[in-house]
Amino acid sequence: MDNEETRRKFLAYFTQFRLIQLHVFNVVFAYLNGVWASPSRLLTFQDFMAGLTIAIVYMVWYLLVLDRLGIHLYPIFSPRSPWAVVTWVLVISGNVGGFFAWKAILAPDA
């Protein structure tokens, strides 16, 4: 992003309605599916480990394969980004926090 035109195109692409809609609706659909569409069940430690494993495998895949091929689905995850460490820590923290939040949401009323 050496010049203003490149920055403008970058921001236009990553803030387009389709990408925002895709990510926002994924969260809405996950919530609806987890709370109303299917029978709820208590989350277990195995659920936590499965989610964390998938996140770590994707992070390794991104670093070792996608980034080396020049495929930047999420440029902020690139090891060349000054925010890389912050974003990777947020991914892991989001998985941990998300697990406990969903566990509380899906818990039966006491």
Question: What is this structure's SSE topology?
Answer:
Blueprint (H helix, E strand, L loop, with lengths): L3 H11 L2 H21 L7 H25 L14 H23 L4
How would you explain this protein's 3D organization?
The chain is mostly helical and 110 residues long. The protein folds into two domains: 39 residues, no CATH class; 71 residues. 73% of the residues lie in helices and 0% in strands. The longest helix is centred in the middle third of the chain and has 25 residues.
Outline type: globular
Query: Number of domains in the coordinates?
Result: 2
The percentage helix is: over 70%
The tally of strands reads 0
Structural class: mainly alpha
- Average pLDDT rating: 86
- Give the end-to-end Cα distance, rounded to a whole number of Å: 54 Å
Count of DSSP helices? 4
- CA gyration radius, whole angstroms: 17 Å
N-to-C SSE series?
Answer: HHHH
Please indicate the percent range of residues in DSSP E strands (runs of 2 or more).
under 5%
How would a textbook summarize the main sheet?
none
User: Which runs of at least 5 residues are low in confidence (pLDDT < 50)?
Assistant: none
